[in-house]
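pls read this stuff:
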Amino acid sequence: MDEVLSGVRSAIAIIIFGPDLEELRHLGADVEAAVSGIAGLVDLQLEPQVPIKQVQIQFLREAAARYGLTVGQLTEMLETALNGRVVSQVLKDQQLFDLVVWLKDEARNNLDIIRNLLVDTPAGQKIPLAQVASIDYGTGPNTINRENVSRLIVVSANVSGRDLGSVVEEIQAQVRQSIQLPTGYFILYGGQFESEQRATQNMLIFGGLAMVIIAVLMYFAVKSFAAMLMIMINLPLALVGGIFSIALGGGIISVASLVGFITLFGVATRNGLLLVDNYNNKLAQGMPLRQVIFEGSIERLVAILMTALTSALGMIPLVIGTGAGKEILQPLAVVVLGGLFTSTALTLLVLPALYSQFGKLLVPQRTLPDDKTLVCSQFFGD
């Protein structure tokens, strides 16, 4: 999954770009040594590049030019001879097989035969390859990785016991302090944390937009700006238990944790709306404010507690569960479970207190035709 998201099989990838493979190797080793002491960093490794025996062919450009040959023509001939070229297909037993032209195995592994390969010149001559190229055994890397045409080497690592963001910040600071990059070399940081940063940014943007839309809809539901504010004030109360539960679990905030907070906001909004809407309805019936708050809270107590209890019971198996998916489901469940306790308790305490306080200050009394007193206010909605 890490490789699908970011192109590397680790949570953090320190990608070093530059033209020379040997220099890249030295820089990679320096970076690996510089960040090895950072707390929470595990599975730290430098991308392996094993020197292997190779047939190395270096073209002699001046000699080739004397015969009217270009490096491209020589390369094409050698690619056909050593790597093979598909020139046609053969039908056999209702199957198509590629027809490949290349040298035999024993010829491809023999330097003398390669040196004596005849090359056709534009003048019609045939010359041995050794006259326009230097051919010998040598050593080279087993793989060369590139991105945007630039060579690169990767120092990869995972994180345990800490959040990705703080570890990456510490890595960046340590690399800036310890590594002096030559001209033409630069470092980029990739891995899972890139996807996490994008997801977090998107969730904050769209979460804020959703909060504005919810506030507008809430206003039309309760017909009162002050009542809408009181319901929205209840949302930060849901954060208290979620943050406390994260702190107990190691203090790591992830995308799954943010999804848990969104779930908490939904429950807290619903509970607040149940209370305030019931208060407003009872005020419209002419009840005194004190009686409105008492009876309105008692009537909605069962519904609010039932919602919180069923949600909490559904989260418990995810909190204590193990196995595949735990790293996604458990942080979400921990946040929801911890936040439900504080959100429910504070909703039943803070909202009645706020409604009572604002009611005393802002709710006027007016006399109905039957001389009954109706406590009502346009501030809270008729």
